[in-house]
Amino acid sequence: MRNVLILAVLSTSSLVATGASAKEAMTVEAAIDDAEKALDTGRIGDAITESEKLARTHGLKKDEQSRLEVIVARCKLVLGKYAESEKLLAKRVKQTPDDPRLAEWYARALDGNGKSDQALTLLADLAQKNALQEGDSYWALAQLERKKGENDAARTHAKLALEKPIVLQSDELDHEIHKFIDELSTSKKK
């Protein structure tokens, strides 16, 4: 019976995004998928709304609960609630230490929570393995490397940040990254 749990009320925008009509119900699995897609495409409001509704759903299976915790942690990461995000992601990373996506988000939460050395080590290791998926992670790594005086690596990773998806992409951020790269290129020429 638990496999048939239905979420009857979802935000209109997420129903439109998935092609469902307002009268159709969505399974828990589909709602989790939609929340993850919302995060991946920068629709943070939709992800938050759906995760809050999912959190009120009784009878979630263990894997559904795990996925929901990651969604909540990612939402908190994007919202700048780094301590909360770090705590949730630490638990998930401990349970699945070989998942590079979890490690990537965890490293950014560590950085935001003032644990820059740990974040740098983790992000650099993931970058070396070409395992970073988000421009946000390359951008965080580039800034950490610059603070450590590793300007060549910082410039390389800042350029990669522009090639990968960034959750909250904006013209201002794009300009900031380009300025960062230009400054590092100028300082190298001197």
Give a description of the structure:
With 190 residues, the protein is mainly alpha-helical. The protein has two domains: 1-79, no CATH class; 98-190, Serine Threonine Protein Phosphatase 5, Tetratricopeptide repeat (Alpha Horseshoe). It is 71% helix and 2% strand. It contains ten helices and two strands; from the N terminus they run βαβααααααααα. The protein has a two-stranded antiparallel sheet. Helix 6 runs antiparallel to helix 7 (116-128), helix 8 (135-147) packs antiparallel against helix 9 and helix 9 (151-163) packs antiparallel against helix 10 (171-189). The longest helix is centred in the C-terminal third of the chain and has 19 residues, at 171-189. The radius of gyration is 18 Å and the shape is elongated. The N and C termini lie far apart (69 Å). The relative contact order is 0.08.
Keywords for this structure?
single chain, 190 residues, 10 helices, 71% helix, 2% strand, two-stranded antiparallel ribbon, 2 domains, mainly alpha, Serine Threonine Protein Phosphatase 5, Tetratricopeptide repeat
